[in-house]
Write a structure and sequence with these properties.
- The complex is a heterodimer.
- By secondary structure, chain A is mainly alpha-helical.
- Chain A has a single domain (12-96), classed as Multidrug-efflux Transporter Regulator, Chain: A, Domain 2, CATH 1.10.1660.10.
- Chain A has six helices and two strands, in the order ββαααααα.
- Chain A is globular and about 45 Å long.
- The mean pLDDT of chain A is 91.
- Chain B is α+β, with helices and mostly antiparallel strands.
- Chain B folds into three domains: 1-110, Helix Hairpins (Orthogonal Bundle); 124-208, Urease metallochaperone UreE, N-terminal domain (HSP40/DNAj peptide-binding domain, Sandwich), CATH 2.60.260.20; 213-309, Urease metallochaperone UreE, N-terminal domain (HSP40/DNAj peptide-binding domain, Sandwich), CATH 2.60.260.20.
- Chain B has nine helices and eleven strands.
- Chain B has helices at 6-10, 18-32, 42-56, 59-66, 104-110, 113-118, 137-142, 227-232, 288-300, and strands at 129-135, 144-155, 161-172, 181-184, 200-206, 213-215, 218-225, 234-238, 245-249, 258-261, 274-280.
- In chain B, strands 6-7-11-10 form a four-stranded mixed beta sheet. In chain B, strands 1-5-4 form a three-stranded mixed beta sheet. Chain B has a two-stranded antiparallel sheet with strand order 2-3.
- Chain B starts with 5 loop residues before the first helix and ends in an 11-residue tail after the last helix.
- Classes of the chains: A mainly alpha, B alpha+beta.
- Strand 2 of chain A pairs antiparallel with strand 4 of chain B.
């Protein structure tokens, strides 16, 4: 209880393909498909050098919940994830303007 | 622990068909899905619905659950009868990652499934866990240590799955921003057969602040000015998260104009900025002297605030 845990910030260290798949509780094939479909945009060239940040983690987990909980197919889930991102951006602007 | 009436949670009759249960789940899942729902308790409701569906969609689990009888009421204190599920075999085990969020009630009934999975020299790295944490904006400025209470399923030494509460003291790194993830190595599910434990990912969000609005690294603060400060320019004191500072307001500053204090936002390699959004606040005409001053202005200033409206 008295031990203080120190973590790393995902955006600073990045996640490899294997780490990212693990964090999503999925296998690498699922991640490769989402990158091929341009749902995820990791930095770096080629699966070996890919580096995933926190934003990708949030997007992938949203995508996964939509597939798992609502049975959304890949295209529908991809559109919903884009719309949710857009809503986040708009809410950010409202917040900045002090309207929310 | 509390009894969970899965039929009541799903809003279906005990004799509902599998199709009706599926339809009810889809409707409730759309209503309470945490990614899209506006309901205040969406996340908790969604977990309940998910757990109910996990049992009712599976004919084996549903039959076992039905064996408990229909006399139990939602929320009633419950202990599972000994060997209540003898003779049932759960082929599916836990469904997906969602099982991590299920209740004590669920774990006490169906938790035995983990035991089979954990035996027989099975080796696997533990699963990664995720949780959201709310911190104060001030924590991101100076760094802090925060006690974070989490509930997570754990496998006890007998191999049974149980929901355990634990508190972690987590160091919040200086400069963390909303939406970022802190990764704590080895704080997920313990591994099996000598494999490594999973990691815990904490997604950070800020509690609403009484003064500052946050946008990524940048902060926004409404700075009230008296009319003469705005008109003539002035040096005024403003709070910043790092302490009070003096700022120079230029003459003829209109309401809504932003003054940028560079580097006074959330710290980091590229620190954010603090934007002061100017507001002009009018003193009330609540004394003879104040009325006199307003009347003098009305008389002597050729000022039409509606000029841009063409009137």
């Amino acid at each position: 209880m008295d031990e203080i845990l120190t973590g790393v910030v995902v955006d600073e260290t990045g996640l490899t393909l294997a780490e990212f798949a693990c964090a999503c509780g999925a296998d690498a094939t699922w991640v490769l498909e989402l990158v091929a479909e341009e749902v995820l945009h990791p930095a770096g060239g080629g699966p070996e050098g890919w580096c995933f940040g926190g934003r990708e983690l949030t997007r992938a987990r949203r995508f996964q919940r939509l597939q798992r909980d609502l049975g959304a197919n890949l295209d529908a889930a991809a559109v919903i994830v884009e719309l949710l991102d857009e809503i986040d951006r708009l809410k950010g602007r409202l917040r900045r303007a002090g309207l929310e | 622990m509390e009894f969970k009436d899965y039929y009541q949670i799903m809003g279906v009759a005990r004799e509902a068909s599998q199709d009706e249960i599926k339809r009810a789940y889809r409707q409730l899942a759309r209503k309470y899905h945490p990614d899209v729902s506006k309901e205040p308790d969406a996340e908790a409701r969604f977990k309940e619905v998910g757990e109910s569906y996990e049992v009712l969609k599976d004919p084996e689990k549903r039959a076992a659950y039905d064996q408990l009888g229909s006399n139990w009421k939602q929320g009633q204190d419950f202990r599972p009868p000994p060997d209540w599920n003898a003779g049932f075999e759960f082929s599916g085990g836990f469904g997906g990652g969602g099982a991590a969020d299920f209740s004590d009630f669920f774990s006490s009934l169906f938790g035995g499934a983990a035991r089979q999975r954990g035996s027989g020299g099975y080796k696997a790295r533990g699963e990664d866990h995720h949780a959201k944490i709310l911190i104060d904006l001030e924590d991101a400025f100076s760094g802090a240590t925060r006690a974070i209470a989490l509930r997570a399923p754990q496998i006890d030494p007998q191999g049974r799955m149980a929901v355990a509460s634990r508190t972690l003291n987590v160091s919040i790194p200086k400069g963390i921003r909303a939406g970022q993830h802190i990764r704590l190595a080895g704080q997920g599910t313990p591994g099996m057969g000598g494999e490594a434990a999973g990691d815990l990912y904490l997604e950070v969000d800020f509690k609403p602040h009484s003064l500052y609005r946050v946008d990524g690294r940048d902060l926004y603060l409404d700075l009230p000015l008296a009319p003469w400060e705005a008109a003539l320019g002035a040096t005024v004191t403003t709070p910043t998260p790092g302490g009070n500072v003096q700022v120079k307001v230029p003459p003829d500053a209109q309401a809504g104009r932003k003054l940028r204090l560079k580097g006074r936002g959330i710290p980091g390699d590229t620190p954010g900025d603090l934007y002061l959004v100017l507001q002009v606040v009018l003193p009330g005409a609540d004394s003879e002297r104040a009325r006199e001053i307003y009347l003098t202005m009305a008389r002597e200033l050729a000022f039409n605030p509606r000029r841009t409206l063409g009137v």
